[in-house]
Structures are given as C-alpha cells and as structure tokens.
C-alpha cells in the first residue's frame, strides 16, 4: 500500500496537513479517487479548496 500525504502552505511558508490516504496502487485512478473524495469533503463542509 502507498501512503499519500496532502499538505498545504500558509502565507508565512508553514505547511499543514490536509489529508492522509492509503492507496491500493500507483495507478492514476487511485490518485484521482483520493482527490475526488477530498473535493466531496470540502463541498460537504462548505469550504473552497
């Protein structure tokens, strides 16, 4: 299993965690699925990425 760590950066160049994902493989579909889930979460909590 692969580990995907999604981070963001602040205006003062500090990073912070957004999400952690376990991927089944290195296929593009696995990455797309993770990003799609994150997008759905943002819409659910009414936050724009």
Describe this structure in words.
This protein is an alpha+beta fold. It has one domain (2-44). Helix content is 35%, strand content 35%. It contains one helix and two strands, in the order E-E-H. The protein has one helix at residues 28-44, and strands at 2-9, 15-23. The chain has a two-stranded antiparallel ribbon with strand order 1-2. The protein starts with a strand and ends in a 5-residue tail after the last helix. The relative contact order is 0.21.
Mean pLDDT: 92
Radius of gyration: 12 Å
Approximate shape:
flat
Helix content: 25-40%
Strand content: 25-35%
With helices defined by DSSP (H or I, 4 residues minimum), what is the helix count? Answer: 1
Helix/strand class: alpha+beta
Number of domains: 1
Sketch the major β-sheet: 2 strands, antiparallel
Unreliable sequence segments: none
Gap between N and C termini, in Å? 26 Å
Multimer state = single chain
| Number of DSSP-assigned strands | 2
């Amino acid at each position: 299993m692969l580990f995907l760590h999604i981070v963001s950066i602040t205006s003062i160049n500090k990073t912070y965690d957004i999400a952690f994902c376990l991927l089944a493989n290195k296929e593009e579909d696995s990455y797309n699925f993770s990003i799609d889930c994150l997008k759905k979460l943002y819409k659910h909590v009414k936050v724009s990425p």
